[in-house]
Sequence to fold (244 residues):
Amino acid sequence: MDIKKLCGCLWFQLILLILLVSGTLNNMQENVFANNDYGMIIKKGTENRKVVALTFDDGPHPVYTEQILDILHEYDVKATFFVLGMLAENYPHIIKRQWEEGHEIGNHTYSHIDTKKASKEELLEEYKKTQDIIYSITKNKPKIFRPPYGSFDKKVLDMVEEDNSIVVLWSANQDSKDWKNPEVEKIIANTISNIENGDIILFHDYVYYDESHTVEALKVIIPELINRGYKFVTLSQLLNISTE
Ligand SMILES: [Zn+2]
Fold:
């Protein structure tokens, strides 16, 4: 092969490689960043790595959250807690434990408001108050916000973006529906039967029942996912490796 042909061939390969890489990136961006009418929200991480993120909403609960922390500690698993400002105020020692044990803490409003129905001022107050309470305990400002009920509009996204934070929901196939406290087996089936790489799994550490079936379900879900080769990451870790 003469040198001209060789050069042409190399150029061709290079262009092919660039097209391939940009195609993969585009795909990844579509999967990771679900664009809606207003802007960017996160529902899922990379599909290229065997990772999942466990997330727990509505706490801290005086009993169940620490039981969950015990299980996470037993398996050396890191998770993300979207906490309510008013409960963080009541149980600062639990927030402190979450932080010290390497978990991520996100903002879930002060009193679980429907952010769509709230005025801009109410929303900002609920958000800011919760950021401040978490900061006062951990000396770290949350970078992630999950609106209660997954309900949000443009004002939510604008506010969060202005604070250099990001809205994170959960994967469509990963709502454990544990807030209704269904049977333990149901929570297990709702999560692990549909598991995919990069999933953000939705649990609740605060449930309004005499016993939390989430705690019992986790004792099965975590070892099962470990057996299947999954690694557990916090949301910030998931987002970082998803855009690597
Ligand atoms: Zn909630």
